[in-house]
Each structure stands twice: as C-alpha cells, then as structure tokens.
Amino acid sequence: MLNFVPSTVEHILTELRKVVVGQDAVIEQVLVALLAEGHALIEGVPGTAKTLLVKTLARIIGADFGRIQFTPDLMPSDITGTNVFNV
What we know:
The structure is a single chain. By secondary structure, the protein is mainly α. It has a domain of 58 residues. 52% of the residues lie in helices and 0% in strands. The protein contains 4 helices and no strands. Helix 1 runs antiparallel to helix 2 and helix 1 crosses helix 3. It is elongated, with a radius of gyration of 17 Å. The termini are far apart.
C-alpha cells in the first residue's frame, strides 16, 4: 500500500530541485513537515526562495497557495476577520 510513497517523494524532490537551487536542506525539511502533517516556519533574508519553494510545492502536489504579507501593524482580525452582531 505504501509502495508509492518513495517514488512520489522522489518525484516531488526532483521537481522542487529543478526550480529551487541550493536549498536542499530546506526542501527536505519542508517535505518532512508536509509528510508528517505538521507545520513549517520558513524564515530567511529576502531572496532565499522561501515563497518560490512553497508556491512550487503547492503546484506540484495540486494544493492551493495563499500568502499573507506580515507587517508590524497587522492584527489577528485582519487575517481571521471579525463578527458583527445585529442586536
């Protein structure tokens, strides 16, 4: 039943490495988080292919991609929304 997992993982790694060059450790760590159904916080200076990595991974696995640009004045309600009650 799990025979497809190694070939699928290898396919994902191969496709990611075609687009994101020189970030093998990060690619593998993100893939481990995905397979473990966990979370990954990807931090780095601008230009280190963070967004490109996640965008490409989403395309490869057929998932949706959404991005939030965090700023110092961003509030949780800006992301989750608020409820307005008519009383």
